[in-house]
Input
Amino acid sequence: MDKIAICINLICPIIMTRFMKLVKDIDKNSLKKQVTDKQAEDAFKTILSWIGEDPSREGLIETPKRVVKAFKEYFKGYSLDASQELKKTFGEVEGYDDMVVEKNISFESHCEHHIAPIIGVVHIAYLPKEKVVGLSKLARTVEVFSKRLQTQERLTTQIANTLMNALDARGVAVTIDAAHQCMTMRGVKKEKTTTITNYFLGTFKDDLSYQNRYLRYITK
Ligand SMILES: [Zn+2]
Output
């Protein structure tokens, strides 16, 4: 009996964990499929009525459909995988080991608190160990994470951590300078305000001379 009890105690949690993971995965997938384009269009139609419009008037009749199409573009990042984008790297760089800086990568995102646009630029630097990545892939990484509901802080760290891991870099620096329309168009209405966030990893965090060189490049 004792043996059976030990067995159950050991195996049950494993089975339960697997079962819960399965339920979670099913939940995630069904959640995605649960809402159809038509349902999303109807939701936008409701919002049009709610703001005091007549969704059946000529100018608005196709609007819910167009908004759903636009939202698919704004939030396409949910179906993209940054690590896939960064898979292809190059080793033949004749020993290049200094920083690679790509600056002024423009981006558009949406804040998760108001679904208002965040518009600005991202600067990225990394210190390669053995491999470099195609330059467009840095901008692609920005795209993957910006086309989601975001906070600027999280966007900054997600880009940095992803590059650090995928490139096995010696260091990564990411700076974002952006205007949040939830601040410029509503609320406190400070239309000239931009927000700057920085995130440094590896050598950029530990060695201020690297950090300073990077900051000089991006402010030039
Ligand atoms: Zn906001």
The longest strand covers residues 100-111.
